[in-house]
Amino acid sequence: MSIGLVSRRIDLLPGQPGPEPIRLRTLILLRWVAIAGQLAAVGAALAIGAEFSLVRVLGVIGLAVALNLSLSLRPGRRITGREAAWQLGFDLAQIAALLALTGGLENPFALLLLAPVTIAATALPGRHLLALGTATFVMVTLAAVFAQPLSFHATRLSLQYPLLVGHWFALVIGALFFSSFARLVAAEVSATSDALFAARMALEREQKLQHLGGVVAAAAHELGTPLATIKLVSAELSDELSDALPEREDLAEDLALLRQSADRCRDILKSMGGAGRDDLLIRSAPLSEVLSEAAAPHRDRGAQIEMQAAEENPIVHRDAAVIHGLRNLIQNAVDFASDRVTVQTGSDRREIWVRIIDDGPGFPPALLPRIGSPFLTTRPRAEDGRSYEGMGLGLFIAKALLERSGARLRFGNGARGAEITVIWPRTLIEADNREALGPNPQILG
Q1: With the CA atoms of 134, 138, 139 and 144 taken in that order, what torsion angle do they form, in degrees rounded to the nearest 10?
Q2: Which residues form the Histidine kinase domain (predicted)?
Q3: pLDDT per residue over 48-103, tens digit each?
Q4: What would the DSSP string read from start to end of 79-136?
Q5: Which residue in 193, 206, 360, 362 could disulfide with 413, CB within 3.0 to 4.6 Å?
């Protein structure tokens, strides 16, 4: 199966959220940089004798501070293109209001009106870019029409050509801002692309393994009869040869070897058939079985994995993406657990959830808002000396695959260790186990 097919399969999963155009953390960071620059510009303008309504200017800057503080309560959540466009629209209106209060388009920093639309051009869909471009045209016009004149009075730092100096600073700051932003976005796009490629490769491998399991199960079933026939015929030939040619011990040994080889093939196919029961026609399974399959590779890696299933054991879609995502979460818990990993399940009328708890050191508090980011990080060492190198990609893959199945994830710390909760709406994960599975594949030969 090609990567392109896997990519389309991911895109078609039900209930998946739209792609995140730009991280909320990036917007918050850029806004803090803009606020710091605005305050610095206000201070510099006062120092060189500029006269403007200081209270109004500080009030407009305070609106941006309030927005950033409210967004900082949940900096790790995903945002849609529409929400990003609204935030950039706010930034555009805020900059236009500041310009209108400080000279309008004569203000050297009018150049920064281009910042929100530049961000939109690199990160947002076309319709949002068109809306923000139109808003930029309107805001530039309003800033020019309702501009408050900017005048200067003599101070110790009075400049002969204050506007010329302001234009110099505006160009330098604008160049630094736009180049830094372009670099930041390019790094985010590159890291996200690499992480998504890894997620697709992981899903492709999972699907190939499931397909191979189906072929093995069918082969084990179909070859059982001819092998039994070979063993029966060889046994009869051995009896006949022992009576007709008792002196030909070499033929008796060959027939014994043939029977042993048939027995060996039978045992091999029996074990392969057991491993290949996960064939492609099994589209659904009890939630407990899906979790057991996800946890199976990590049961002998040190920490004990304990399953705590609820009384209800719903039948869910047995999807390779879901299994791989849960497997990554369990692997992360096993990596950092001291002795035990607990996997709990539960459900109500509307939702089905899975909670994975370990008794390790837990997530570092500073890292919690960034969990699920595709950027590789160097984590500090735990008290027991285990390295935290590289966390980010595995959890990003798990988060991306599970969210594309319609789930939402919560990361946190409990009384002991980390807790990850995966929650699905019933309509997206629950399967109807009464529908027909379809015809079995035919194996000719």
Answers
A1: 140
A2: 218-428
A3: 777 888 899 999 999 999 999 998 887 767 777 888 889 888 998 998 898 888 88
A4: --HHHHHHHHHHHHHHHHHHHHHTTGGGSGGGGGGHHHHHHHHHHS-HHHHHHHHHHH
A5: 362
> To which residue do tokens 């950039």 refer?
88
pLDDT tier for residue 302 given thresholds of 50, 70 and 90: confident
Q: Averaging pLDDT over each range in 57-71, 199-213, 321-335, which range is the top one?
A: 57-71
To the nearest whole percent, how much of the chain has pLDDT over 70?
Answer: 70
CB atoms within 10 A of CB 265: 16
Name the more confident of 49 and 372: 49
Residues 6+ apart with CB under 8 A from 74: 24, 369
Residue 396 tokens, joined? 């990003």
Question: Residue 437 has which token pair?
Answer: 């599975």
Backbone angles phi, psi at 168, to 5 degrees: -60, -50
List C-alpha distances in Å: 346 to 220, 247, 307, 350, 380: 37, 72, 12, 11, 34
Q: What is the pTM of this model?
A: 0.47
What tokens does 268 get?
Answer: 């091999």
Helices (H), 12-80: 24-47, 54-71
Which domains can be identified in the chain, with CATH numbers?
Answer: 3-158 (no CATH), 284-429 (3.30.565.10)
Half-sphere exposure of 285 (CA within 13 A, CB side): 20
Return the closest-CA partner of residue 295 out of 321, 339, 334, 352. Answer: 334
Report the candidate in 78, 95, 77, 85 with the shortest Cα–Cα distance to residue 33.
Answer: 95
Quick one: tokens of 407? 């789930």
Distance of alpha carbon 164 from alpha carbon 130, whole angstroms: 33
Q: How many CB atoms lie within 10 A of CB 283?
A: 14
